[in-house]
Amino acid sequence: MLSRLLPIALVTLTAIPLWGWPARSYSPYLDQVRAMYPHEFACTICHAADHKLNRFGQDFAKALAKRHEPFQALKDIEKLDSDGDGFANGDELRAGTLPEDTFSRPIKPKASPSAPPAS
Ligand SMILES: [Ca+2]
Is the pLDDT of residue 31 over 60? Predict the structure, then answer.
C-alpha cells in the first residue's frame, strides 16, 4: 500500500511549485514596522513593484546604515516626509497611510464646533 502511495505523494509535492504555492516573503524590517505601528503594512511600504526601494525605503535604508537597529532607524525617519505629501512618516504610519505614496494621506480631523462655555 505504501509503495503505491509514495509515487503519488512525490508527484503531488513536486507539482506544488508549478501550481504556484502562495508566495510569501519575510522581512524582519516589515515585522518591526508592524510591531511599532498598529496596521498591516505590506512589503510595498519600502519596495516598488520592481522590488527596488521606494523613497521611504531609501530613507529607512539610510537610517538603518547609521543606526544598525530597525527600531531606532524607524524612529529616526518618523519626522521625515519621504513622499512629500505634507505629512510626516510617523504620522502616516500611525494613521495606516503610506509614507511612500503621495496620494495616501491621513485624514485631517474636521474642526468641531466649540462647546458653549459652562455657566
Ligand atoms: Ca503619504
Answer: yes
How far apart are alpha carbons 71 and 62 in whole angstroms?
13
Quote the pTM value: 0.70
CA of 57 to the centre of ligand 1 (A): 13
C-alpha of residue 39 to centroid of ligand 1, in Å: 15
